[in-house]
Fold:
Amino acid sequence: MPGNDRVWSGLDAAQVEALIGRHFPQIHVGGRAMLIEEAGAQRARVRLKKQERHLRPGGTVSGPTMFTLADFSVYVAIIATLGEAGIAAVTTNLNINFLAKPEPRDLIAVVRLIRLGRRLAVGEAQLFSEGAADMVAHAIATYALPSPSASGAAPSR
Structure:
């Protein structure tokens, strides 16, 4: 088979974790709650470890916590796909639908990138309570991607 038939498998979870730790360590202030379980080209799986700070009255995980998990998880998929250049990606829009009351336990985000263009990436995050089959939230996020000159590459002429 020709050499150009190789498929980029992306960075793995440990590689993405190392990049985030180096460039964005403040994400773990207050304790490491989000754990990257899987990562690869255009996909990610992230676990949010249940902590008291994530719960709200009524015995459920708060909406802002689920929003943060969805946003971070799409970011992980972008970094896994683009490598270090993905660190500079920024959220431009995130729409989330809360579908069910999550139990007060770990949440799992399963992400796939729907579209990866030159300037924008669109990702879908499905959130589940650990051990449950039904989604508790569904999010679509759009990220602005860094231009090649912003990531250190020479500008095109």
Observations:
- Helices lie at 13-23, 63-82.
- Residues 1-6, 153-157 have pLDDT under 50 and may be disordered.
- The first helix runs from residue 13 to 23.
- The beta strands are 34-40, 43-48, 55-56, 60-61, 90-98, 107-116, 120-129, 135-144.
